[in-house]
Predict the structure.
Amino acid sequence: MLMKLDNKVAIVTGAARGIGEGIARKFASEGARVAIADIDGAAAQKTAATLGNSAIGVAMDVTDEKAVKAGVAEVAKKLGPPDVLVANAGIQTVYPVEEFPFAEWKKLLSIHLDGAFLATQACLPHMYKKGAGSIIYMGSVLSKDSAVLKCAYTTAKHGLIGLAQVVSREGAAHGVRANVICPSFVRTALVDKQIPEQAQALGITEEEVVSRIMLGHTVDKQFTTISEVAEVALLFASFPTLALTGQSLLVAHGAYME
Amino acid sequence: MKLDGKVALVTGAARGIGEAIAKRFVAEGARVAIADIDLKAARETAEALAGRNTGQTMGIAMDVADESAVNAGIAEVARAWGGIDVLVSNAGIQIVHPIEEFPFAEWKKLLAIHLDGAFLATKACLPHMYKNGGGSIIYMGSVHSKEASPLKSAYVTAKHGLLGLARVVSEEGATHGVRANVICPGFVKTALVEKQIPEQAKTLGISEKDVVEKVMLGGTVDKEFTTVEDVAEVALLFAGFPTNALTGQSLVVSHGWYMN
């Protein structure tokens, strides 16, 4: 059977671990040649080595214009020009607004928003030249909803929706699609780290953080899984027409319904 | 194949979007019941889609606004194939009038087909799905589940209403493994849409070309109609998705007309 991403080149940022890694694996299993971009170059190489299918690891600080350009150029040279970009790199930082250090606000926005912008900007010329491409931004339920302590993350994730919509308008004439995946809590290292942090900040138990804050609004008290997110990424990456461009899809066990 | 061993029922499936979804499901291995108010057309479509695999489809008569007809049709499918795994509540009509001229009977008719139809089919399928411990219910929404257009008060109201229904079904169905989602296409060039072009041209006092380019495709990113195949691909995603991660959601399939 023909695989869904045969002969495609995909770049996934923040792909050494977690959701990015899961997407990269799914893409590789569907025939794509995948570049694992990560700020931790050694971890990127290590993950790439386990993927096979000529996957490569690339060191990339997504907030550094030169690094992003150089990384995308390296991928284009080694694997061919990118057909799919997944702008996934992200961090989480939690504070009440009045205590949020400005430097941390700027850092979070830079990784999520500058990172998505720079990777998009570096990939678009390749995609425009081919007359096709798929750009997928990693949003969140917090692209639609909000949560206490997460003003920077909520702002950044909302911002990605705006960016995706503009890219879908500008890219349409060149066959380039843009979409946002909006997962609810996925049990990654990034989420595990939040459990004690939030318990302390909110003065509740870690168990309550999980059952009330993280899963309270789901229909089935289940964490979203990496493979569920990867399945949706595959849908957007492989969809054959522009019919889905500009859209976001929540992968959230009902935590927010749209 | 993604729907191997599954039983699906698609309402309004003799033609158009419903037919394309049925076709896609058949290709992925499902047994598909083609329900339509027009029994003859349902049987013809069922036969055409099955090809040599007779027994993979059946055509059944179903006026989705009639409780006993819906119950009887779904019972027939469940009896023949042992249950129902996927329901696509797709049957719909369009009626355009300015509100002040909208005949109440036509308003009621449209709401009955879209909303009563979705409710009745859901109600009749759920016991089978609950018994099986799983199921996928897909409602055919529209960009008009999110946005409004003049002349379409009944359609916009009904399509918005389906989002509410889908969310409640996803809440109630979760413990039984039943998912509910809404597909929201932009203009798809089906008979239902073709019919609107001269109607809207007349009502709005513009050319048919302007109806297509400005009213129907003006908001898209590429001036393209959505196709029945685009919609069927998304229906397959929701029907085949293995977990509750995608429940309660709607996905707009519209070439960028209304970005959600």
User: Anything to note?
Assistant: Chain A touches chain B at residues 164-165, 168-169, 172-173, 219-220, 222, 224-225, 228-229, 231-232, 235, 239-254, 257-258 (CB under 8 Å). The mean pLDDT of chain A is 95.
